[in-house]
């Protein structure tokens, strides 16, 4: 009997050890052996509780490597892993007893420490992490940037503390010069402005302040306006007209982009359906956020919403970007095929900016590609760029895709694109984006007999 008891006790101890190991593994980043994000977040909350109870102070230091993506791409993922593991080790060495060091994911690390002599700590951390190291016989000097936020002087809870440290990090990364930065009055003001803007954006959507503007798309051969791209604008009551850069990224973060896209889509369909019915244009091209496309029901919902408008499916183009295509090729294919089956055209936006675009074009039934503005800039001026763009046009065309060049700003670019066989063009050279009334007036003016006003190409 006592043997049996000893056996059971041993078994229980074994199980407990196993459980502890599993728990530790679940809290550990396997590459560096540091805490992972999940463990770090709960550890930070506990640490703040403790400091609150005892009147202590805490500093959160977030660290982000510079140029890690380039290193990873040039030296390979395995080398990237070695580098991260080494940096994890250096961070561990830099940590004092009682500190919490973690890898938050990718090339992002964090250290939680007492709020004592932070400037010196940040400098030492940067110096330690920037020491050159040899990987596969090559010397690599991984620069880093650091952001700091403190409890209780900056923030009262873990979420704000992390947000503020990230803001400081972002400033250090983009500010030039200083490689570390701490949350301060200037960042607090920016953060408050952003909070206000967030609240205003939530209200702006139901209030109908987000409206579609339109930019004409020109047929290269006939120089006629054959379509419009729908571009969102926010009629802000105090700040005036805001462009998507001021609110689309924020809307994506807040999960509001879907309601924006829906509101813009509905307003755009209502406004453009008569233009299509009267033969003023053939194409209405709408932008869709990668976030929308992650919804497996996206295409079904879009088709349903379209059927509630007077715009025919064959007149609609949906512009999507590679960010989404890459994440889930299978889902992308299902959406594209479902849309195509009802006659909706799918365009690959910003073509030529990322390296996966070609892969998307090879494997997915994409009917239109939009050549990115950055490629058009030097076309017709720099012979190498011209050759490359001509080859890209050829590649897209041989796969049966139609090409629309974006950001055409001068006659030289337009002439080159026409000679290279580009199907359609869009850009300031022809017209800037404009409100619906102005767009309608321009279309009617162009359609007017007896001398149709054509937008000239050369
Ligand atoms: P995009 O789809 O690449 O749109 C083209 C952008 O280039 C537009 O900026 C347009 O105004 C600008 N543009 C057009 N021609 C020229 C030119 O000749 N030169 C220069 N320098 N720029 C030109 P915009 O309207 O500020 O839109 C920026 C981005 O915001 C769009 O890029 C698109 O990705 C996004 N966006 C716009 N509307 C919506 C929307 O309703 N929903 C979503 N999800 N995204 C939108
Ligand atoms: Ca677009
Ligand atoms: Ca684009």
Please explain how this structure is put together.
This protein is α/β, with parallel strands linked by helices and 458 residues long. The chain folds into two domains: 22-183, Reverse transcriptase/Diguanylate cyclase domain (Alpha-Beta Plaits, 2-Layer Sandwich); 201-447, Alpha-Beta Barrel (TIM Barrel), CATH 3.20.20. Helix content is 50%, strand content 20%. It has helices at 2-27, 37-54, 68-75, 77-94, 118-130, 158-174, 185-204, 248-254, 257-277, 290-293, 298-307, 322-327, 329-341, 357-363, 373-376, 383-398, 411-419, 436-447, and strands spanning 58-65, 100-105, 108-114, 133-135, 138-140, 144-151, 180-182, 210-219, 225-236, 240-242, 283-287, 316-320, 345-351, 368-371, 402-405, 424-425. Strands 8-9-11-12-13-14-15-16 form an eight-stranded mixed β-barrel, surrounded by four helices. The protein has a five-stranded mixed beta sheet with strand order 2-3-1-6-7, with helices on both faces. Helix 3 packs across helix 4 (77-94) and helix 11 packs parallel to helix 13. It is elongated and about 100 Å long. The N and C termini lie far apart (101 Å). The relative contact order is 0.07. The mean pLDDT is 91. It binds ligand C2E and calcium ion (CA) (2 copies). One calcium ion binds next to strand 13. Residues 215, 231-232, 243-245, 248, 257, 261, 264, 287-289, 349-350, 373, 406-409, 426-428, 433 line the site of ligand C2E.
